[in-house]
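Reopening this ticket.

The earlier resolution said the output was attached, but the attachment link was broken on my side. Pasting everything inline this time so it's all in one place.
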Amino acid sequence: MQVGKWNVEYLEQSHLYLVNGVVVPSITTILKTKFPMDDSIPEDVLDNARQRGNRVHKEVEDYETNGTVAEDSEELKNYIKLKARHSFNVVDVEKIIVLELDNKPVAAGRLDQVIIDRNGDLAINDLKSTSKLNTAYLYYQTNFYRIGHNQTYGTNIQKCYATHLKGNEASFKPIVRNDAIVIKLLVDFLSEQKEEELSLDL
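Inline output:
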């Protein structure tokens, strides 16, 4: 698949991307180094959360791409109300982006939505259906996507949002923009990877 100037292939089993034939980690993989999974959470709870997340994402994507409405979905009904209340329009969904460092591809990911907010500005919007909204995680995630979209498609997106949909809970929140702090996490991750590779060679 052509993504900007890159040829990208997603390796689902390993959660890695091939960018111009070079293996790069997903943005999710990088984020897990800073926000590791809580081992005390039972597997069935995690599985239910994954299934709910997949369902909500699919319902919103279907609604945005072809107008399909899942009538029995409380989350989708709340999403439609949030859109009207906050006056945003979706211009792209499930978009692959490539993160660059020194003009080289170093990571890739797939963002949920590119939107136009009520001020007419392009923005990244991430959908979450977790019990609680992890704003620290979203801070890094949405900014990675914002930077990656700008690099991949030549845009100048400066805003990030998060949409939380869980049962009858629904919110649409702005996320603070920051380039330096998320790039530092990327650089630290790549440095650790390189050290691990060197230690394996010894």
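Reporter confirms the inline version is readable. The chain has a mean pLDDT of 92. Residues 46 and 52 are 10 Å apart (CA to CA).
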